[in-house]
Design goal:
single chain; 621 residues; mainly alpha
Length: 621
């Protein structure tokens, strides 16, 4: 037993790297199997057991020790090294495989950027020490490749693991896991399991707004909107002290179209933590839900409480892209930063305002300040990444957003920046992953849904995925007309006119917008319902007579139906003169065609009709 294992040096060299010591390297090549076992047991395992009993290194050493014990026993029984010859490479490869899997998981973002999801999924699956967070990430990755059966299997494993957790041991971690798990169950429509988790935790967590949020989402997804609204109305913001609960209430208020309550929540967030970046997601929600309602709510707040620094800051974020308000926006941000002596959040908004206005010299002053910070937090990296993305400096943006996500992987908007960087670099991206990831981090944020519906339809021609998103978001955001209109447009493109008609009726019932009414009118014409269709086109014009597309349709109506060329031409000419780059090539083409068709038969100077043959003009949705 004392003789060396000649010819097996390569294995022990590899084993040495795996269990190398900080103080002294051990030469395994000069040891017998028993000596290796004794060393691992007495010098390493006991020490780690006393000092770090839960350390992964200790667990790995126990595995190594047990495996080598097996090899030594095999030698004792057989009297030969044949078992060792056959199994020692397997042992070392297994240990090194574990290290490779840990390396992959630790650098998971690099694999996501490269799109190597199969290797990531394999590493997560083979990691026996996988955390709850890693389980949830694995669910996201499996969902992104449409592996429904394994998503359900993994959710079941998480449920069992969560049931074994003790809430008293780590209250905050337990709550975080419960809420994240519930969001995954909602997102992947495992509502029975969600009900079980809600019932189990109602007694301990039921007083929290975040728990009430999950109850509301469950009720919305199951069609019980009255109960969802009842739970929401029972929340009193004045009694809410936890900032995460205030954030949750702010988002719920957007869902229920109570922008006044959303603004009150935002003000309270600033009073608790003026640097809290979650306000950006909430402002995006109200801004892209309905910009007019957002402005009305801000104006009403100002009438009631005056132009406080908080409401001015919110107003600046809402109008951050409006270059005509650049100076006003900067003044609003200044008043906020002066009151709270803030730096990062206000600097990020100020930088974006200046960049949008192309005031790059002033923007560079802020950039230099941010770049000079030695220990940058995730938000500083996020600001720099977003700025570089705006300038199409994709490599720099990728570097910054990668560092940002590694410091904080729970900020949903970071993944939006990463996705746009990869698209800008012409990389092949897994769109499903980015959608699932962002929604799992911000389940109530319908702005995320709108982003991906547009990307799926306009950039990736994936109508099925777009409709799937809209089906989910329309259940959550019961008062949001824009989501229904998006669904109607997709159904029109698919020539599913009855489905489109239903969604347009729902949208108009929520908000009589001229765009919805115009689209509805033209849809009815295409379905052969000429009378109601013409009435809707006329109604759209009444609602917004300055809209270019409404002007075009008014011209088409007076030409095709009334045969009033003079009124038709005045409308078409106004549409033609109002064209700019904001309209699609198709829209511009139709308006120009209609204009030149009428101009060929009508002299606007004399009012004379030059031809008895009146052309047929095209309508626009």
């Amino acid at each position: 037993m004392k003789k060396n294992l000649k010819g097996r040096e390569v294995y022990f060299e590899r084993l040495d790297k795996i269990v190398k010591r900080k103080k002294k390297k051990v030469d395994f090549t000069g040891m017998s199997p028993y000596e290796i076992i004794n060393y691992l047991r007495e010098k390493d395992i006991r020490k780690n057991y006393k000092v770090l009993p839960s350390n992964k290194f200790f667990k790995r050493m126990v595995v190594v020790s047990c495996c080598i014990v097996f090899l030594v026993v095999s030698y004792s029984v057989t009297g030969t090294y044949s078992i060792i010859d056959n199994n020692i490479e397997l042992l070392v490869n297994k240990i090194e495989g574990k290290k490779e899997e840990e390396e992959i998981i630790n650098n998971s973002l690099d694999y996501i950027i490269r799109g190597d999801f199969q290797k990531l999924i394999s590493a997560y699956r083979n990691d026996s020490s996988i955390s709850m967070e890693s389980h949830l990430e694995l669910v996201t990755m499996l969902a992104s490749i449409n592996n429904v059966s394994q998503v359900k299997e993994e959710l079941s494993l998480i449920k069992n693991k969560l049931s074994q957790s003790v809430i008293a041991r780590n209250q905050d971690e337990y709550k975080k896991n419960v809420y994240k798990f519930l969001d995954s169950l909602f997102l992947y429509e495992n509502l029975e399991e969600a009900r079980e988790i809600l019932d189990k935790n109602a007694q301990n967590l039921g007083h929290e707004v975040r728990f009430k949020e999950k109850e509301i989402v469950y009720n919305l997804l199951t069609g019980n909107t009255e109960n969802a609204l009842y739970i929401y109305n029972g929340i009193d913001l004045s009694n809410v002290l936890d900032i995460d609960d205030v954030i949750s209430y702010g988002k719920l208020s957007v869902i229920f179209n109570r922008f006044d309550n959303t603004l009150n929540a935002l003000v309270k967030i600033f009073e608790i933590d003026p640097e809290n970046i979650n306000v950006l997601s909430i402002v995006d929600m109200i801004k892209y839900y309905d910009i007019n309602n957002a402005n009305n709510a801000v104006n009403y707040f100002i009438e009631s409480f005056g132009e406080t620094p908080e409401i001015r800051f919110i107003r600046a974020i809402i109008h951050i892209e409006d270059v005509y308000r650049t100076q006003l926006n900067l003044e609003d941000v200044y008043e906020f930063s002066k009151k709270y002596n803030t730096n990062m959040l206000s600097n990020g908004i100020r930088l974006e305002i200046l960049t949008n206005a192309n005031r790059l010299d002033e923007a560079n002053v802020i950039l230099n300040e941010l770049r000079s910070i030695k220990d940058k937090n995730f938000y500083v990296h996020y600001i720099l990444a977003k700025h570089n993305l705006e300038l199409e400096n994709y490599n720099e943006s990728l570097n910054e957003i990668t560092q940002s996500i590694k410091l904080n992987g729970d900020f949903a908007l970071s993944y939006k920046v990463l996705l746009n960087v990869l698209i800008g670099q012409k990389k092949i991206v897994n769109m499903n992953y980015f959608y699932c990831k962002m929604k799992s981090l911000d389940i109530l944020n319908t702005y995320i849904d709108k982003i991906f519906v547009l990307k799926y339809t306009n950039e990736f021609n994936d109508i099925e995925s777009a409709l799937k998103i809209l089906k989910f978001s329309n259940k959550i955001s019961i008062y949001e007309s824009g989501l229904r209109y998006q669904a109607a447009k997709i159904y029109i493109d698919l020539k599913k006119y009855e489905e489109a008609k239903q969604k347009l009726m729902e949208a108009i019932a929520l908000k009589e917008d001229s765009i919805y009414v115009r689209t509805y009118g033209l849809l009815l014409l295409n379905m052969g319902e000429e009378g109601p269709g013409i009435d809707s086109i006329r109604r759209a014009y009444e609602l917004n007579p300055e809209d270019i597309l409404n002007l075009n349709n008014a011209g088409a109506y007076y030409t095709n139906i009334e045969k009033n060329i003079q009124r038709a031409f005045s409308n078409i000419e106004a549409a033609y003169e109002g064209l700019d780059n904001s309209y699609s090539e198709y829209e511009a083409f139709i308006i120009r065609e209609n204009y030149f068709k009428l101009k060929a038969i009508y002299d606007s100077t004399t009012g004379e009709i030059l031809s008895e043959e009146i052309p047929t003009l095209d309508y626009l949705y």
